[in-house]
Specification:
The chain is of the alpha+beta class. The protein is built from 2 helices and 11 strands, in the order H-H-E-E-E-E-E-E-E-E-E-E-E.
C-alpha cells in the first residue's frame, strides 16, 4: 500500500521546521515592506482618472488636434499624448530645459509603457485610465520615448522623439 506524501511531510520534523521557517519569512518580509511603505508615505496614486479608450479620439483633451505641447499660465508645460499600436502621438515633442513638464497620456488599445532613457520620465499607460507624471529635463538633447511594455508584434518599432532645447534658445512647439 502506498503512503500519503502529505502525511509523510507533516510527520517529518525537519520538513515541518522548513515549512514554518518559510511562512515566518514570508510574514516578516510583508511586515517590513508594509512598515517601509508607511514610513516613506508610499501609496497608490489617488488622482485616478478614468477615460473611455474606445472613444478616446472623440474626447476634447485627447482629440487629434489637441495633442502636443501647451503652455500653462504659470510657465510650465503640459504634453498630451496618445499611445496606440505602434506609436506615440504626436510622434515628435519639443520642450525647453529646466521647465516643469506635465505629461498626460492615454492608451487607445492595450497596455503600454513609456520610458525616456537617461531621464526620470517613465510610466505605464493603462487602457481606460489617464497616466500623468511631471518632470523637467536639465540637459538639452534628443531622447527617444520608448514603449517598455510588450504590446504586440510591432512593439519594437514603437517610439517617438523628445527634443529638449536650451531654454535660452527658445520655447516649445
Amino acid at each position: 500500500m502506498m503512503q500519503d506524501p502529505l502525511k509523510t511531510l507533516c510527520e517529518d520534523p525537519l520538513e515541518r521546521r522548513w515549512v514554518w521557517m518559510s511562512l515566518f519569512l514570508a510574514v516578516l518580509v510583508g511586515f517590513v515592506l508594509g512598515l517601509y511603505a508607511l514610513s516613506s508615505n508610499i501609496h497608490p496614486p489617488s488622482n485616478v482618472e478614468t477615460i473611455d479608450s474606445t472613444r478616446l479620439h472623440l474626447t476634447e483633451e485627447f482629440a487629434e488636434d489637441n495633442l502636443g505641447v501647451k503652455q500653462n499660465e504659470d510657465g510650465s508645460l503640459t504634453v498630451t499624448m496618445v499611445a496606440a499600436r505602434y506609436g506615440f502621438f504626436p510622434p515628435e515633442i519639443e520642450v525647453p530645459t529646466d521647465t516643469p513638464v506635465k505629461f498626460r497620456m492615454a492608451s487607445a488599445d492595450v497596455l503600454h509603457g513609456v520610458h525616456a532613457p537617461y531621464t526620470n520620465a517613465a510610466t505605464m499607460i493603462v487602457p481606460g485610465y489617464v497616466s500623468e507624471f511631471t518632470t523637467s529635463f536639465p540637459t538639452a538633447g534628443k531622447y527617444s520615448f520608448l514603449c517598455n511594455e510588450y504590446c504586440g508584434l510591432g512593439h519594437d518599432s514603437m517610439w517617438s522623439r523628445l527634443t529638449v532645447v536650451d531654454k535660452s534658445a527658445g520655447g516649445a512647439k
